[in-house]
Amino acid sequence: MKSLITKRSIVVTGHRTSVSLEDAFWSALKEIAKARNVTVSNLVAAIDAERQQGNLSSAIRLFVLGDYRKQLSDLNGGNSPAEVEAATQTELRTYQVHRTNDLQRT
Hints:
Elements: E1 5-12, E2 15-22, H1 23-35, H2 40-50, H3 56-75, H4 81-105
Antiparallel strand pairs: 1-2
Helix pairs in contact: 1-3
């Protein structure tokens, strides 16, 4: 599925600017703004103020990615996705060992 890039004009700290993002990032940005009870323009202004390099579109994509990673980490008890994956793999190996031992006994 091809993600189309959409250019939108928004006002950031009193100045109109154009931002080009894939539709999925626009949707995510709107969801995050709604969850934080701020406007998209105010959220983008905060992202713009925090970025240290690169263009605004890239900064927004990284912000969205970071926000979603934090949400996932919060859902996993503060563990990063890599930590959850490692724990899952360990549990799977332990299950396989026990299952193999059970089968060998029968």
